[in-house]
Design goal:
By secondary structure, this protein is α/β, with parallel strands linked by helices. The protein is built from 11 helices and 13 strands. Bound molecules: nicotinamide-adenine-dinucleotide. Nicotinamide-adenine-dinucleotide binds next to helix 5 and strand 8.
Amino acid sequence: MVDFDGFGPEKIIQVYHPKTGMRGVVVIDNTALGPGKGGIRMTPTVDMEEVAKLARAMTWKCALAEIPFGGAKSGIMADSKKLSPVEKKNIVIAFSEALRHVCPEMYVAAPDMYMAEEEMRLFAEANGSMKSVTGKPKDMGGIPHELGSTGFGVFHSTKVAAEHIGLDLEGATFAVEGFGNVGEFAAKFLTEAGAKLVATSDSRGCIYNKDGLDFNKIKETKEKLGSVTNYTRGSVLSNKEIIKVDVDILVTAAIPNLVLAGDVDSVKAKLIVEGSNIPMAPQVEMLLHRKGVMVVPDFVANAGGVISSYIEYIGGTEQEMFKMVEKKLVRNTKLVLESSSKDTTPRDAAMDIAVNRVLKECKICSVDYKKQRHH
Ligand code: NAD
């Protein structure tokens, strides 16, 4: 069951196309600030509840990033690995055609799991509007993922948070969980700012050297040998051990629920920046907050991707994207950290800001949100 509350969801659309077998759902959570923005996830298990939760998360993320988008999300119930390229193509086209009446006025799509730029090309063509979707290929005005907008934003968020706790980035040590798109770029920009990478991980494990890892060699090792653990100048740990490493800063950039309540005592970092989505539950963030560890929440720190989508949507350039990601991440991270206090975690402070921004513009919302904290 989807939980309806004073914010939405405003619209839930279930679509079915018998000829291709396409079954999908779109949840448009709240459009007070603009058309609902959110990716299309193709998995065999995706359902309305999952899509609704993700759509709500997008409402807060876009509000906090101060971009004129609301929150939405889509799911297509299919196993991408079992589909032939033609079957997948026909499903994406059928899905897009079924959403012509809401895109782009109420919904702007994007890639999520098992969706990439070629599917976004098909979506835009079948929908008939270039504004119906972001994450399109470059030749269609897309801004590629490979530019690292999210990692770039994570870096700026980290920089602001470090200043906030009086930590000089120059010479500070850091670890990055997940050397993928987000993690690699966060590590690159932090290294360039003079911080020392001492640990990083991927699905095969963690590599650690207290004297520092060479960023370029780690990148080369990952590209050529498939895993950061093949880097020879360091010790290999299990991937979970990255949270116990002695560092000033931990950037998360891979899995959900990385840090559990039982791990809090062994965390040594003074600052954790959530590049990944939901790397820990809000209750764990509260425990870390009480311990004196600053945690910059996911929807604040990893908003670079959705800001980049917005720049693509308005037809902007790569340079404009980097400029806007920096400006917004710096401003919003500062605002959130300054609004947090002994009893208010940065997540609670960020939620208050996002919720108030939506409420200010929302003509249909009807809620005293404080009665039902949204996490
Ligand atoms: P990615 O697939 O490019 O990289 C993920 C990395 O994590 C890979 O190197 C993988 O080997 C590693 N990994 C997998 N399991 C691991 C484990 N158990 N321990 C350590 N590392 C592991 O993905 P990405 O795009 O970098 O996304 C990472 C996270 O950031 C996800 O939570 C995603 O939802 C979130 N996020 C990404 C973006 C974006 O623009 N890419 C935007 C917002 C949020």
